[in-house]
Amino acid sequence: MLRKSTAVRDYAVIILGAFIVGFAIKNIYDPQGLVTGGVSGVAIILKEKAQIPLWITNLAVNVPLFLLALKMKGWGFVRRVLVAESALTLALAVLPEWAFLKDDLILTALFGGVFSGVGTGMMLICHATTGGTDTIAALIHTRLRHYSINQILQVLDGMVVLAGASVFGIHYAFYAIIAVIALAKTSDSMIEGMHFAKAAYIISDKKEEIAGRIMAMDRGVTFLDAKGAYTGARRDVLFCVVSKKEMVEVKEIVRQLDPRAFVIVNDVREVLGEGFMEYRQ
Questions:
Q1: Which one of 158, 192, 226 terminates a domain?
Q2: What is the pLDDT of residues 85-111, one digit of tens each?
Q3: How many CB atoms lie within 10 A of CB 130?
Q4: Buried b or exposed e, range 238-266, using 16+ CB within 10 angstroms
Q5: Region 166-190: what's the mean pLDDT?
Q6: How far is CA 68 from the centre of its chain?
Q7: Angle formed at CA 85 by CA 84 and CA 86, multiple of 5 degrees
Q8: Is residue 119 part of a domain?
Q9: Span 12-25, average pLDDT
Q10: Which stretch of DSSP H or E encloses residue 197?
Q11: Are 269 and 279 in contact (CB under 8 A)?
Q12: Which residues of 195-206 are buried (b: 16+ CB within 10 A; e: fewer)?
């Protein structure tokens, strides 16, 4: 039952993510002529040159790709892609046209990147993409394994962006690059997590006292066995992970108990486990 409910939830997230991406393509990128690569970029170009609706191009390009991927990779590879691609095609067909960022290319690039990044991130978290150049890159990779999928994808999307520049002008292509960067940053943040924390490594002669004060904050502390390279002496290194706000208190504890302590503080992108984020079922 748990597996079934998890699959239903994943497919709901995939569909919602695809609609968010569809909104970005139809109501942000297309009205301004920003071609950010992929099949959506091809669709925007064909709409400008031949008045072909976005959803028709999206469907026409992806159907043969889906059939080819099904033959080469099997149903397990394409089933979530099919849901995502179908939802995106539906979104491009039914969402009303609403160009709400008229004549402001920088806002178009930034908000388009954020919206499409959120939608893309939602789908990637659920192990899905909207097909298109992602599928082409995966299929080419089966023949050209000395190139990574990401390298192939960059070449394919670069070709689409260049085609867009030839239609809408190089000025628009540079704004499209901004949108691509915003998309990548947003989707990466969603995949890697937005629950930032801080990790501290503390070397001190007052290790027991410092550990006790940190544990009083309801945070765990681990002693790591270490050996000094110069002295050869063995000593414990305190390791703890706390929230960004709590790190201020940790540093104050160390300052009070041992001003000569050596402290290293690192940024932590995501923390899973007790006291932080629960594991995703």
A1: 192
A2: 899 999 999 999 887 777 788 999 999
A3: 30
A4: bebbbbeebbeebbebbeebbeebebeee
A5: 86
A6: 27
A7: 95
A8: yes
A9: 93
A10: strand 197-203
A11: no
A12: eebbebebbbeb
Rg (CA), the chain: 25
The whole-angstrom separation of Cα 34 and Cα 73 is 32
Q: What is the average pLDDT score of the chain?
A: 85
pLDDT tier for residue 2 given thresholds of 50, 70 and 90: very low
Domain end, chosen from 142, 174, 192, is at 192
Selection from 81-85, 186-190, 206-210, 274-278 with the highest mean pLDDT? 206-210
Q: Which two tokens stand for residue 33?
A: 């002529």
Tokens of 227: 């050996």
The 10s digit of each residue's pLDDT in 50-70 is 899 999 998 998 888 888 777
Q: Do 154 and 35 contact (CB within 8 A), yes or no?
A: no
Question: What pLDDT, in 10s, does the model give residues 219-238?
Answer: 999 999 998 888 888 889 99
Query: Same domain, yes or no, for 150 and 201?
Result: no
Global pTM?
Answer: 0.70
Region 136-149: mean pLDDT is 74
The three-state secondary structure class of 268 is strand
Number of domains in the chain: 2
Helix boundaries (H) for the chain: 2-24, 30-32, 38-50, 54-73, 75-94, 105-125, 133-141, 149-168, 170-192, 207-215, 244-257
Dihedral of alpha carbons 12, 17, 18, 24, sign: positive
| 129 and 219 fall within a common domain | no
Residue 107 placed within a domain: yes
Domain that holds residue 56: 2-192
Which amino acid type is present at position 25?
Answer: I
Question: Strand pairing of 197-203 and 262-268?
Answer: antiparallel
